[in-house]
Please model this.
Amino acid sequence: MGIFKEDLLNLGKLIDTEIEVRLSPEDFRKVYQDLDFLFEEGLLRIRGKRKFLLFKRSFEFRGREDPTAVQTVKNGETKDLKVEIQIVSGDGVDVLKEKEGFEVKGEKLSISLFPVLKLTELYSKIPDTFRERLRITRYKIGNGYMSVFIKVTK
Model:
């Protein structure tokens, strides 16, 4: 679309301002349909099912927040915003790392948040020219939500 007059007026407010985006378990469910995300104070639990011979068996991954473990990765023309969760209970890690959007790095599970952020109302309000400059600065896991703090950089 282009830059609107109000975007130019608010340019100074958008650059280097940290904005909190609250993501609910339902937001994650839209992207990762076969997984259930449960948020408790500082703790993330991911529930799902894995195939075991002819049956499906439940698993529950548990991870602890590491608020500053965030990254922005540019793969060709697409960008990805990720957070890293410290693994507490590795149950289901083998299933999660096979799914798109998850990656295991040592004792941390990296989760792609870009597909989840794209579905939020706030993301739709950000002008196209600023979307490519989004960075996650930190995140926090609260009771029933994950807060992601994003910033538009120069």
User: Anything to note?
Assistant: The helical segments are 5-9, 11-14, 25-31, 93-96, 114-118, 121-125, 128-131. Residues 1-5 have pLDDT under 50 and may be disordered.
